[in-house]
């Protein structure tokens, strides 16, 4: 991670198939400041990151981590090796309030960008996965594997642990409401998607997310039948 920062190659290397998979694995264990640095780099050109076949996966990972680190009292588990005693020690590093706010701001920024490009992104092969992840983090849940359109997911750092739902910042939660309402107003909604994609995306991801928080948001959104 430090080598990537020094060379300023985070964005270009994230578009590499092999490097993107490595980033998926190392980001959950990277220093919080390094994750924030990646957020800044990706935020400079969100469209390119959303539509890229490999960088889009890294963006999904960053979104998942952002919600995790935006939690009140969030900590990061780090492991350090003690060569003298030949043992590994687990450290808990607290995420500062300023860092938590930066993660929340990143979630809000990406969510708003997805909202503004919703009609294009929902029918894009790669950006649609980013839309799905935005819906997940905006509702604080991770959608069941059975309704995913791709098996490549960040299972090692899923949002839900033992049935718990993470707390979503109010501004980010509002993005979910806005997206839900906008979906119902898209012209020719059914015609935007192939039937199998519509079934997985609308009936699966969106309805699942909305149903988990509709009482809290006092939603009354009608979804079209697929």
TrEMBL record:
GO cellular component: 90S preribosome; nucleolus; preribosome, small subunit precursor
Organism domain of life: Eukaryota
Keywords per UniProt: Repeat
One MF term in the entry's GO annotations: RNA binding
GO biological process terms on file: endonucleolytic cleavage in 5'-ETS of tricistronic rRNA transcript (SSU-rRNA, 5.8S rRNA, LSU-rRNA); endonucleolytic cleavage in ITS1 to separate SSU-rRNA from 5.8S rRNA and LSU-rRNA from tricistronic rRNA transcript (SSU-rRNA, 5.8S rRNA, LSU-rRNA); endonucleolytic cleavage to generate mature 5'-end of SSU-rRNA from (SSU-rRNA, 5.8S rRNA, LSU-rRNA); ribosomal small subunit export from nucleus
Repeat listed as a keyword: yes
Coiled-coil ranges per UniProt: none
UniProt xrefs under Pfam families: PUF_NOP9
Name of protein: Nucleolar protein 9
Designated gene of the protein: NOP9_0
